[in-house]
Amino acid sequence: MNRLKNLFETLKKNNDRALVGFVTAGDPNIDTSLKIISAMCENGMDILELGVPFSDPSADGPVIQRSSSRALEHNVSLKTVMEMIREIRKITSIPIIIFSYYNPIMAYGIENFQPDAIEAGADGLLVVDLPLEESPELTSVWKDTDFSLINLVAPTTPKQRMAKIASASSGFLYLVSKTGVTGSDGLDTSEIASQMSILHSVTDLPVCVGFGISTTDDVAAVASMADGVVIGSAFERLIEENIDNPELVSIIGRRTAEYKAATK
Amino acid sequence: MNPDTHFNSQMYPDADGHFGPYGGRYVAETLMPALIELEEAYKKYLPDPKFQKALNNLLKNYTGRPTPIFFAERLTNSIGGASIYLKREDLTHTGAHKINNTLGQTLLAKWMGKKKVIAETGAGQHGVATATTAALFGMECKIFMGVEDIQRQAPNVKRMELLGAEVVPVESGTGTLKDAMNEALRYWVSAIRDTFYVIGSVAGPHPYPVMVREFQKIIGEEAREQIQEITGRLPDLLVACVGGGSNAMGLFFPFLEDQAVQMIGVEAAGTGIETGKHAATLCTGSVGVLHGSKSYLLQDKNGQINEAHSISAGLDYPGVGPEHSLFRDIDRVQYVAVTDQQALDAFSALCRLEGIIPALESSHALAATMFEAKNRSKENIILVNLSGRGDKDLGIVSPLL
Fold this sequence. Notes:
With 264 residues, chain A is an alpha/beta fold. In chain A, 47% of the residues lie in helices and 14% in strands. The longest helix of chain A is centred in the last third of the chain and has 14 residues, at 189-202. Chain B has helices at 32-45, 49-61, 73-79, 98-111, 125-137, 147-152, 154-162, 177-190, 208-216, 218-231, 246-252, 281-284, 322-329, 340-354, 360-374, 394-397; strands at 18-19, 22-26, 69-71, 83-88, 116-121, 140-146, 166-170, 195-197, 237-241, 262-270, 286-290, 292-297, 334-339, 381-386.
């Protein structure tokens, strides 16, 4: 069963777009993190991107850096993330993508990663710092072709390279909306539109757009152009602002529902 | 590889920047096209005789190259072993070998039409060198520096500011070199279209390790000729300190195929390897990916990067250049580690015996040299890279001596 493929087919039939939610696993602690993810699932999140915390997140802005630090205070490792996915899988059938830097995967073991991730219930992997040229060292040991490698395409990526990346990808492509780190302000919709039209000329894969999307207006604007909208830093900012608020979980749930309402 | 096997230094890196299993390009996709553009520019301009002429002119008349080799006679006699020669990179303009690389990279940036440069810095020597060459070429310059390093290398912060650079304090993580590099990478992603990132060591994603090696190998090329003029033969042993590893690579590279020349790279053992507070990446680390390349790292079992410790800010880094990782595996270079205290003792010795104040980084190489010299005869020749001057370290050293 390919959950990603099924999801994008169903969305297309319903003239809807995917709401992709990113949270750092174990932020602010493992229990609350599981409750937050559960609330996101109940309120319409279509795909979960679960972040593996890393000590040196050089592609992330301050919000996700701090979320990573909070999770690391609770010793959250890739092994913990696998255990969390097992728990999450009990309550939802939405696709789950592991979102990581490469070093934690190397330390976990390249050989064991894919079988363990599939056994836990994950559907794919996105590695921030593993570009096309280096990814075969990981994917050449992959046996299950239903498990997707999600690749990033950036505003700086030339068309020919986009085509190469697309042909090495499955599930969906992740278009980075702007040059910058996660959580940067401002959304340039005309830039996204021009990138989308180039992408559509080189691939049939669904395209989800992320980076700099924080308001429901942003979501609606991007949803009119893409197959999915990725929200990360905005969720993490909400967690950070309400870290001691007993209503934290329901606040995240409500925000998820607002974002989901904007994807249609 | 058996150390007797002839090492071919031109074999590495391969077309994608791999030194055996190490190196490569592990970065976010946004940076990839910029790295490819840089690689193309580097391959196009470096062999260009006009580029070489411009660079050599600056190396000679601006930097003061060639730097001399000096026989440290009183140091040699005080130990009573091998003859110790110093390659005087401390005499370059700005006081460290770092300028060889920043002149090359900033000139390349100019030829590529870039108007802004950024750099990370630990001890501040690379930051000063970048600020210097940016001023020389009239380019805008931002230097990322950890808050911990800003405090312990205050004179260099002032120097950078005088040279017109903006010093950006980095508070994330441990506030040292690795965090400065994270922040420089973050800034570069957002400013990728008009900004050149001047990396200060033989580290980072391809083509930086090979490019920095090419700009630093002048140290070894000069030294190889000079030592033969002075002594009539090649040295028996080369010694250099290793943080990221650029001064060591610069000295070692032109000697790699001289099988009889032994090489020692000296890492920082901090307060002692057994205390866990050190920066001995090659001596104690394991393989992983950090800052764009695969190499040995200080990390825990889950792949989280460990904090490095050294009295010397320039060695306080949990990674190392990928080509050094290869040299370690094939036993072409022996890597050892020297404690803060041993480096301080060597620092004092050179001050009093030779009238030269060495950088704390270089003092690590001197400490290892002094141990090695003891067990060798006077006919044995050790050439050590005195990679920088120590004026910047007076604030750290004075209370401890």
